[in-house]
Structure formats: structure tokens, C-alpha cells
Amino acid sequence: VHPNVSQGCQGGCATCSDYNGCLSCKPRLFFVLERIGMKQIGVCLSSCPSGYYGTRYPDINKCAKCKADCDTCFTRNFCTKCKSGFYLHSGKCLEKCPDGLETNNHTMECTSIVHCEASEWSPWSPCTKKGKTCGFKRGNEVRVREIVQHPSARGNPCPATSESRKCIVQRKRCQKEGKGKKNREEKRKKSNKDESKETRQESKGRAARRQNREQRENNNKTQPKKRKAPNKEQNLAPVDTAH
């Protein structure tokens, strides 16, 4: 063993030196060179730091640098996160997204353009004027629809969600609110009165029927039972047929 190489290393190193740090790592750990000033020091880590990707070999596991525009990567040619000013698309970091895609400054990715989508129109509302449906001949009717998909930054904007058009109705007088309320109250009272009258008549009818039934039962109890008339044929004297 070289005098500068030590076997009793710490921090996951299999072999190390006082000047260069780790020279090899324990199994499953990644070896990476960290620059400190003008000197590079070897360290052993369980996973590669930002800007590096790991490669495993039979003799050693190493961390290699990603491309300059990559913040993190899976391999050198497949980036998973870009540095500031670049947008991720299919593993690459781009300054400008391809046609048909737009930049997403929140995720720093190139995403598909989303256009606005609206629902079907509702049926036309009743013809009204100043909030009323009577007392006029010409008014307006409206219909509405809802936005079901809002657009992205470069998507087509949303259309109008309401429409109005002129309408003509057969003119009718508006019923006064006080008179209408009075009529409704009178109808309600009359209905309650009729119901009460019918209820009283039904009660009287049931009482009369019950009284007649009880009277018939009492009459049946007080009247004596009629005796059966003797059979005339039994009272006839026998006829002497000897002569």
C-alpha cells in the first residue's frame, strides 16, 4: 500500500489519502470529485448531488456531470430539471418551446396549448321588461352558457357567456300585488270554509246513522217475539171413513 493511502477511512471511503480524500468507496456508494479551490477532493455519497447523474460499473460507481443547462438529469442526454432561463421538453433544456407548445413559467416546462371550451346554450328565458313579464308588448329574452375549460396563456380566449335579443309577446295587464294577495287570501278562506262545512256535514251524517242504528237495536229488544200460528192441518179432526 502506498504510504499516502490509508485503509482506515471514514465517511464511506474504502481507501483514501490525506491529500485527495476518498480514492474508492464502499459498495453501493457513488464516488464524486468536489472542487475546493484549486484542489479536487474525492467523496463517497449515497446519491449524486444536483447537477450530476450516477453510473454504476463492476469496479466503481461514479457521479458524472449533467449538461451545462441541466440542473438535474437521469443521464447526460436526458435532463429532468433545467436551470433558470431554460424550459424542459422531452429530456432537453430549451430557451424557446417548439411550435404548438407554450412555456409554463411555474413548472419551467413546455406544455400543450389549451383552448377555451364553453358548454351548450341554455334555453331562452321568458320575455321580460324591467324585470316584469306583463304590462308590455316588446321586451328582451336571454340565454347563457358556462365555461368548462379555461384557456392557457396562448390558447383561444373564451367567447361571450350570455346573449340577449328582442322579443314580442301578447300584451296582458299586470295583476296588482295587493289585489292579487287579497284574492288569494279570500280563496284560501273560502276553501277552508268549504272544507269545514263538508267536515261538519259528514260528522252529522255519521251521528244520524249511528242514532238510527241504536234506535233499531232498542226497538228489537223491547218488542215481544211473535208466536207462530198453529198449523191448520194439524188442528183438523180425523175423518171417519168407516161408513
UniProtKB/TrEMBL annotation:
<dbReference type="InterPro" id="IPR000884">
    <property type="entry name" value="TSP1_rpt"/>
</dbReference>
<keyword id="KW-0964">Secreted</keyword>
<dbReference type="InterPro" id="IPR009030">
    <property type="entry name" value="Growth_fac_rcpt_cys_sf"/>
</dbReference>
<keyword id="KW-0325">Glycoprotein</keyword>
<keyword id="KW-1015">Disulfide bond</keyword>
<comment type="function">
    <text>Activator of the canonical Wnt signaling pathway by acting as a ligand for LGR4-6 receptors, which acts as a key regulator of angiogenesis. Upon binding to LGR4-6 (LGR4, LGR5 or LGR6), LGR4-6 associate with phosphorylated LRP6 and frizzled receptors that are activated by extracellular Wnt receptors, triggering the canonical Wnt signaling pathway to increase expression of target genes. Also regulates the canonical Wnt/beta-catenin-dependent pathway and non-canonical Wnt signaling by acting as an inhibitor of ZNRF3, an important regulator of the Wnt signaling pathway.</text>
</comment>
<keyword id="KW-0879">Wnt signaling pathway</keyword>
<protein>
    <recommendedName>
        <fullName>R-spondin-3</fullName>
    </recommendedName>
</protein>
<dbReference type="InterPro" id="IPR006212">
    <property type="entry name" value="Furin_repeat"/>
</dbReference>
<feature type="compositionally biased region" description="Basic and acidic residues">
    <location>
        <begin position="175"/>
        <end position="219"/>
    </location>
</feature>
<dbReference type="GO" id="GO:0016055">
    <property type="term" value="P:Wnt signaling pathway"/>
</dbReference>
<feature type="domain" description="R-spondin Fu-CRD">
    <location>
        <begin position="11"/>
        <end position="110"/>
    </location>
</feature>
<keyword id="KW-0732">Signal</keyword>
<dbReference type="GO" id="GO:0005102">
    <property type="term" value="F:signaling receptor binding"/>
</dbReference>
<dbReference type="InterPro" id="IPR043601">
    <property type="entry name" value="Rspo_Fu-CRD_dom"/>
</dbReference>
<comment type="subunit">
    <text>Interacts with the extracellular domain of FZD8 and LRP6. It however does not form a ternary complex with FZD8 and LRP6. Interacts with WNT1. Binds heparin. Interacts with LGR4, LGR5 and LGR6.</text>
</comment>
<dbReference type="GO" id="GO:0008201">
    <property type="term" value="F:heparin binding"/>
</dbReference>
<comment type="similarity">
    <text>Belongs to the R-spondin family.</text>
</comment>
<dbReference type="Pfam" id="PF15913">
    <property type="entry name" value="Furin-like_2"/>
</dbReference>
<keyword id="KW-0677">Repeat</keyword>
<dbReference type="GO" id="GO:2000052">
    <property type="term" value="P:positive regulation of non-canonical Wnt signaling pathway"/>
</dbReference>
<dbReference type="InterPro" id="IPR044004">
    <property type="entry name" value="TSP1_spondin_dom"/>
</dbReference>
<feature type="region of interest" description="Disordered">
    <location>
        <begin position="169"/>
        <end position="243"/>
    </location>
</feature>
<keyword id="KW-0716">Sensory transduction</keyword>
<dbReference type="GO" id="GO:0005576">
    <property type="term" value="C:extracellular region"/>
</dbReference>
<dbReference type="Pfam" id="PF19028">
    <property type="entry name" value="TSP1_spondin"/>
</dbReference>
<dbReference type="InterPro" id="IPR051514">
    <property type="entry name" value="R-spondin"/>
</dbReference>
<dbReference type="InterPro" id="IPR036383">
    <property type="entry name" value="TSP1_rpt_sf"/>
</dbReference>
<feature type="domain" description="Spondin-like TSP1">
    <location>
        <begin position="116"/>
        <end position="170"/>
    </location>
</feature>
<keyword id="KW-0358">Heparin-binding</keyword>
